[in-house]
Structure formats: C-alpha cells, structure tokens
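Notes to self, Hydroquinone 1,2-dioxygenase large subunit N-terminal domain-containing protein:
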Amino acid sequence: MAMSLSLDAQAAPTTSTASTDTETLEISNQTGFRAFRAGGFHFKRDEYFAHLSWPGGTHIIPIDVFLRAMMRDVAWGFFYGVVNFDAVFGTINHYGEVTMFAGRFDDAYRSAGRDYSERFQSAALMATFKELLSDWTVAGYDPFAAPMETGVPWGVKQGANDAAITRQRVTAHRMVGLLGDTPLRTDTAGFPVNRQFADVPQDQPVVEAEPGFEHEVSAYNLFGYLSRSDVTWNPSVCSVVGDSLFCPTSEEFILPVEHGNDRCEWFLQLSDEITWDVKDKETGKPRARVLARAGDICCMPADIRHQGYSTKRSMLLVWENGAAKIPQMIAEGTAPVTPVQF
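result:
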C-alpha cells in the first residue's frame, strides 16, 4: 500500500513567505495531457518525456523515470530531506514548506550560476503534484509497481489510473496487527503473495497473552507481510516507539529517486541483495558503492544521497529517527552526520 509520511507538521513556520502560486494550464491538442505551473517552473509531457522549464533553463526527463519519482515524492509527503528526481531536478522538505530546485545539487549548474530554486507552501505544491500525477498517469500504468508488473506510460492521453496512485498510506500508530491499528495483509484484503516471494512461509506466530493484555501483546510474520507488498521502494511504518520508526519495504528494479538525507538512516537487508550508489549530497560526486546482502546492516550518513538497485525482489528494513529537531541540529553542527566517528 502507498505511504504518505506526515512530515509537514514537524516544524511548520508560524509566518511564511513561501509561495502558493500554482496553476493548471491548457490541454495539449497533440497529446491530450495538461500542462502545469508552479511559480517559475513549467511542466508538460509528450509521448515519451516530461519537459521542465524555469527562468533561464530547460530539462527533459523520460516520462517513466519522472512518474516513478513523482509518485514517491507525492506518496512520501516530500520525505526526509532531498528527493532528487535525477541529477538536476528535485525537492527539499522543510516540513511545512518545500523548495523545488533545478541544478541545486549539481556541481556544473552551481559553478556556472545556472541553478534555480523556489520555495512553496507544502500543501499548495502537493496539490499541483497530485493533479499532475493523476493527469499524466495513463490507464494500465502503475508508477508504484515494478516494471514487469505493470503496463507502460508511453503515448498520448489514454484514461487514468487513480486507484494506483491514491493507495492509502500504511502507517502504524504502534504496530501492524494490533487492535485498531494497521491490519495484516491477506488474500481476502487484496494482497496476494508476490510472484518473487512464493517461497516465503505465511504462518503466523502464536501469542498467548495473560488475561487483560490480549490487545497489548502482539506479534506477526514480517516476512509474510512484506511478501504481500503490492508496491516497490515504499517504506511503510510498521512499528513506532517514540521517534523510532521501523519502515520495512520490498525492493525491485531501481529506487526511483536519489534520496539526499537530512539525518542518518539505517538499512538492514532482510533478504537477497541491493547495490547502493552513494554520492556526495551537495555535488553528486560518487563516494561509495555498497553491496548489501541478507543480514548486512549499514548506515547512510546525513551528508550523502543514495540510490539502490535490486534484481531479485528483496526485503529491506529502513530504520528512521523521525525527531523533528535533527535536521536543524545537523545544520548547526550539534549532531554528527555519521553515527560513529572512526
């Protein structure tokens, strides 16, 4: 199921000069798709590409790459830190406001003085992004699915697939399976076992709670739960203890964005393997390539961006510290960008 992290409420400013200047533009006679504007940024699509423009610059992104990235930016509520659609375009979450940029984290753009950015109120930009995603996603295509599990986004306007792009967020209040919390995934609820997880056992643990604690003591088969995920690269909040969030997910093909961290982020590889490209957050220069196999644990520092590749659908546990104060502490130098200093 889809996820839309409620991060905007973390630190919304009391007064704001962020823009709400967004607009839905005309429908193309050639393709049937609408164009959109947010401040100085303009968006239009054709049969193969998303075309972006801003004062002093233009950019083209293949439409499948653009829609998969846009789906995550929308579903994650702009996520923690930076969501790079590619090396040029993306968003920065300020939790209540969001900066949309072109070239902000690209060395060539910045050194030439050609980078451009504007700051928006999150709700206004999110509304435009949702409308764009709905209009540009054609019938039969699911930007949340692995490429072999969906149709194609190419061509002129042909219907829509709002059912795919408006899935309800999976965010447990305490833990999946507890009374009144996020339910387990089952066949009857519309979550069959994924084709690549056919060998994952589906039995559930037996919990024998003392009388009066039946709804306080619980357990479930996490591997079975993840084997029934109908989306990829979409961390679901499955347990919460204070600011500690366990966000497991199933991964296949490519993480559609390069995620620029604003805090440390822990990865526990639960099954199979993922190759991670790690780059400098500010410049995009390569810093490491990490191969994570089942059982491996790594921490992505707060000063990098990362993108993963998984051929066999794999299971990954993402451990997030959701504390609102961390980005400011890191910016001020009172919190480290790595959990351990060597």
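- The chain has two domains: 1-169, 170-342.
- The first strand starts at residue 22 and ends at 27.
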